[in-house]
């Protein structure tokens, strides 16, 4: 099953729950393809990392588990962020394709 997850804010607990859910989807008995699209303030997810909400570790676990992360290139550019091997840059067309090609789509 193809699962799309859209995250649009940088609230630490919201990011934490979204990435935990993405990891759960990857680890279920099904052969799920999970893609997270970071939009708006969520592109600065690393800023929300803390001892209580280990965002960076969850992002790494999600990527190592086979999950794909796309960050809105415009939102990243507004925040001076670059894409990397974990979070590649994408655009609204990528978000659209994720939405229409996903069997399930959830927003955080």
Automatic annotation (TrEMBL):
Q: Tell me the InterPro entries matching this sequence.
A: DsrEFH-like (IPR027396), Sulphur_relay_DsrE/F-like (IPR003787)
Q: Name one Pfam family in it.
A: DsrE
Q: What is the designated name of this protein?
A: Sulfur reduction protein DsrE
Specify the species: Thermodesulfovibrio yellowstonii
Lineage here is: Bacteria, Pseudomonadati, Nitrospirota, Thermodesulfovibrionia, Thermodesulfovibrionales
């Amino acid at each position: 099953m193809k699962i799309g997850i859209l995250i649009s804010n940088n609230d630490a607990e919201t990011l934490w729950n979204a990435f935990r859910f993405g990891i759960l989807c990857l680890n279920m008995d099904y052969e799920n393809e999970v893609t997270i699209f970071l939009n708006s303030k969520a592109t600065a997810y690393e800023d929300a990392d803390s001892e209580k909400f280990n965002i960076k570790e969850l992002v790494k676990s999600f990527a190592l588990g086979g999950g794909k992360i796309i960050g809105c290139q415009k939102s990243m550019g507004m925040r001076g962020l670059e894409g990397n091997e974990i979070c590649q840059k994408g655009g609204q067309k990528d978000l659209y394709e994720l939405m229409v090609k996903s069997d399930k789509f959830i927003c955080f």
